[in-house]
Amino acid sequence: MTPKANLFTPVLIAGCLIMLVSFGIRASFGVFQIPIAEEFGWLRSEFSLAIAIQNLAWGIGQPIFGALAERMGDRKAIVLGALAYAAGLVLSSFAVSPEAHQVYEILVGFGIAGTGFGVILAVVGRASSDENRSMSLAIATAAGSAGQVFGPPVAEALLGVMSWQMVFLVFAGLVLASLAFLPMMRAPEAASRAELEESIGALLGRAFRDPSYTLIFLGFFSCGYQLGFITAHFPAFITEMCGPISPGGVLHSVGVTTTSALGAVAIGVIGMANIAGTLTAGWLGKRYSKKYLLAGVYAARTVVAAAFIMVPMTPATVLLFSVSMGALWLATVPLTSGLIAHLYGLRYMGTLYGIVFFSHQVGSFMGVWLGGRMYDVYGDYTMVWWVGVGVGAFSALVHLPVKEKRDLPPLAA
């Protein structure tokens, strides 16, 4: 009898720890919206544009780092990503103009690309057995969510005892410290003979001619739009629009006494609910059609977002929305990356997923930038929120025609 493959490999554990740090810091940037804007007297759109550029740079960098990992090795690519991430944070701590922040966030975005989904998930996917791959990808994705649970509250707490500049320096140190887990990041080449014989150019040509790959690319846009907008603007949205926290209520009794604190907690709650949601998506992805699961996730997000904006915002509705949206937050990632691995194999998974992820980050750029722009024009976020509802419904529909039949190239004679 063949022994059962181990789910929790050293590669999976190390990948989870690196993503925990990387995504915890990334998720905290929305907490700095108001402190930085108030210190310099900037419009909301100016720091929003810096975060939007970060997300776009992340998207551009993702296929680049995926290709670098496949050419020069996963661990070298991760080191380059961590160095870029730390450099961007350090330089941002000295920035005193919107333009400087916007330029330095390019480095941060590239750093996230080198320490995030594209590289880490490709390594985890190759190190996993066929039986465990869907769940391994979900666990690694959930680690990013765990970072989101801790990142914003930690940033909020640090802002209470030090300047935002010092917080950025502390975060830079944590990114570099995460490289201590790199020795565990060794993965075999889990690819078939046909995959190994196919060049990256041939595979890209085959994928670009496949309508299913195009539909997956288009569908990931709304995921980025919704996540980018909420991560960057939800804390400020809650701070300014939510009803007061009752002095004798549960939130007040645990120390959440202001809507500003509730905004940071809400991002953490989204991350906590997402751990369960992502793991559930991984479990379901092993058993059911990934394209229908993706369509269902996007449809559910659309309903949740529409319901939230149509009722008065109270601490209770904020928490209810955070739990509901959190359960759907990154559930798309193991399903999308798993679908790409299923359709095109593991050899160049990092590059192919990175290209699809670029669409996600274009959406994220639009969500973050448009949120700041619409706020400056209209004084609230209502319009940009409804755009998110519309693109969510679009993504639910475009996944339905995807063909899930695997089509690997023939073996060379």
Structure description:
With 413 residues, the chain is mainly alpha-helical. The protein is 76% helix and 0% strand. It contains 18 helices and no strands. It has helices at 10-26, 33-40, 44-72, 74-93, 98-115, 117-127, 133-159, 164-177, 193-197, 200-208, 211-241, 250-253, 259-285, 290-309, 315-328, 332-344, 349-378, 382-398. α7 packs antiparallel against α13. The longest helix is centred in the middle third of the chain and has 31 residues, at 211-241.
Work out the helix count: 18
Distance between the termini: 34 Å
Low-confidence runs of at least 5 consecutive residues = none
Q: Helix-strand pattern, N to C?
A: HHHHHHHHHHHHHHHHHH
Radius of gyration using CA atoms only: 20 Å
Oligomer: single chain
Task: Please outline the major beta sheet.
Answer: none
Share of residues in helices: over 70%
Could you tell me the number of beta strands?
0
Mean pLDDT: 84
